[in-house]
Amino acid sequence: MIVTKSNLEVAIKASLHAGKEIIRIYNDTKADLELELKTDDSPLTVADRNANEVILSYLSQTSFPVLSEEGGEIPYEVRKDWALFWMVDPLDGTKDFLRRNGEFTVNIALISNREPVLGVIYIPDRQVLYFAEKGRGAFKITDVVWDDAADWNKLLLRAVKLPLPMYREGVIVASSRSYVNVHVAAFVDNLREQGSEVTLLVCGSSIKLCMVAEGSADIYPRFSPCMEWDTAAGHIILREAGCEIFKLNGRDPLEYNKENLTNPWFVSERVR
Asked: Structure pTM?
């Protein structure tokens, strides 16, 4: 299957526009975030909802259905036969958004036959964009905002291919800011016992996946719950940059559009 350039353009423009809306709310100290708790006790804000509406307005230009974290539950019987669909997390890292640490992202992926074939991750506060298409490589653009989307070809010319050149000693382990636990600590201890000099970097949202893809981190162990929309966009970016996300109980990669959308524990690392 060939993913057309138009799908990438739609996804990138959707992410940048959603990022603009998120930052508008983020920077407005008087804004009412309308904080709610979802059924899993995770937070939901007006920024989540507004970003989702912006993204849907773009993805509706395509013929593919959308599975979004904020779009309501879609029964497995309805989606199990979807050959191609969008998977969206309009604001990954809502807790970090509320902490105002800048570590939140917009995640948009295109899924085909249980694997991501296109992925876009935008970090609005840092104005950094990551994207990838199956078989076409993974890329990063810095200092990018919504206005840059007006000249699509000029924007793509700014893209730098991943991984980036990195020169350092030791192992950099990325870990979730909200979910550093005894299992992650044991993982790091095991690396040190093997003789590695290990530095642990904590960070929010899908930024950790991007760090492994670009080479600023070597490995990201996730030993706590997360959902498919948390990893789908980052997964194809990782793959196209020479990395993979492996289930902890083997060397099988994560799959998507399962009946249960919760990911198993996993490790993301470079394979080539």
From this structure: 0.95
